[in-house]
Amino acid sequence: MNNKITSNNRYLRPKIVYPIFLIFLVFFDGSLMSGFSNFLSFYDFSILPNLTFVGIFYAIHFHSDKHFAFWWWLVAVGLIFDLYYTQAIGTYLVSYLVSAYVVYLIDQRMPYRIWSTFWTIATGLLVFYFLVFIAGILVNETDIAFANYIIFTVLPTIIFNAFIEIIFYRPVESLTYIINK
């Protein structure tokens, strides 16, 4: 007998759930930033919620990227982010793709522990925001010093998003196990 745990609900298939979840997170990020902008920006510090990247990390870390056309949906998420928030194609599209690939390469070599997931997502977010900063410099949209950007924006953002990732790690792991099987 074959005792595999499978979902009988056809709507809980990874090909349906993950793309909807990633697109939802794109708009949820914007809602968080506009709704809590006073809370997330104080003094010179700025915290940017990037739950879309956390969702991308979860898809890679829990091997859900093999159950649907992950990289094509990642292109779609980058395009949606670019067109909806920046009205220019390229910045977030390339940043999401490159940082997700870096996370993919690192995650294969790291042990399966929560502390290593912190360093994996921190590295991915560092690459992501470095690419966004470079794109901002290339189009003369950024006039902040790189050290100030790292200290006052990137580090608080990495700490905030890694904290969110650690809080939701076990529930998402359980849900991913149900959906992928």
TrEMBL record:
GO BP, one annotated term: regulation of cell shape
Superkingdom of origin organism: Bacteria
InterPro entries: Cell_shape_determining_MreD
Main location: membrane
Membrane topology (UniProt): Multi-pass membrane protein
Protein localization: Cell membrane
Keyword check for Membrane: yes
Stretches that traverse the bilayer: 16-36, 42-60, 67-83, 118-139, 145-169
Signal peptide: none
GO cellular component: plasma membrane
The entry's keywords: Cell membrane, Cell shape, Membrane, Transmembrane, Transmembrane helix
Family stated for the protein in its record: Belongs to the MreD family.
UniProt cross-references to NCBIfam families, sorted A to Z: shape_MreD (TIGR03426)
Name assigned to this protein: Rod shape-determining protein MreD
Source organism of the structure: Oenococcus oeni (Leuconostoc oenos)
Lineage: Bacteria, Bacillati, Bacillota, Bacilli, Lactobacillales
Gene expressing this chain: mreD
